[in-house]
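**User:**
Make up any protein.

**Assistant:**
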Amino acid sequence: MTRGALIFVGVLFSLACSWAALIFGSQLHLGALQPAAILNSSELYPAPRPGLAQQGAVVYRANGCFYCHSQQVRQGGITFGAVITDPGTNAPAVVAALRARFPSVSADTAQQTPGKLPVVIAADTTAAAANQAMKPFTDIEVKTELTFKNLGADIAAGLGPRGSVARDYLFDNPPLPGSLRAGPDLANVGSRAPEKFVGIWSFSPAARTNDALQAIERERHHLAHLYNPAAVAKGSTMPAYPFLFEKRPLKPGAKPSPDAIQLGKDTPSDGFEIIPSSDAKALVAYLLSLRHDASLAERAVPRPPRIPTPSTNAAPSAPAPKP
């Protein structure tokens, strides 16, 4: 009896510790999470999804899309660098600092006026080493900037500019990070460049500099992909969702509806058109709302160095060091 009571207390204590660590600890850490300001901006992130996108999330779950698609970009780490953004006017001092930093650089090369900024003075190193590389230049009033690069296979594959964090899912109920990637990750499918899709596509010439046209062409691409994935991405194993569309007969002489999807060689025979249902439109609206690309304090997004207007008395530069 004594041992039985001891075992019972031990099991109860173990369960209590597990609950405290996994449930209560997570609640303390994440329970009060709120939208936060995007770095270098007053805009808050995330914002609730628009109504149509929220309806699309229901369609996404109802069709089991989360079984084959994840919504989480994995990040492996960060590497740092340093650049000169403005060499200033003290040319002799800058030349001396550059030659001290890069002993193999000749005097003639170091004295050349920079034709293109920024000038890399450190790359693929630690933050401490990058700051140390900048110090001789900041001491002579040369403007420098610490740079960084997010690492990881997902980021290298173009799945997103940074790793996903808990804040990304703040307004998702329930969150759908997924556990399997039978298909591509969708965390940033709303902003993914066309050349980063499995079935590579491209914007029309008119849309390349027109955000409104890009949004329209993204929507058309996703609708065509839902109707016949294999026609959009060769070899795709994704099932088709024709039940989300309606094949309508066209009246003689009538023009196709502006909602009719463009299917290329898969366009139905004359006299018919394919119209997306409200569920198809909602699902695409949800997909286009998926963006884990805001720069946050817990996971920042690299940005190009800020280059001031070049002065007429620019100081010399040096070739970028080999990583």
In short: The chain has nine helices and seven strands.
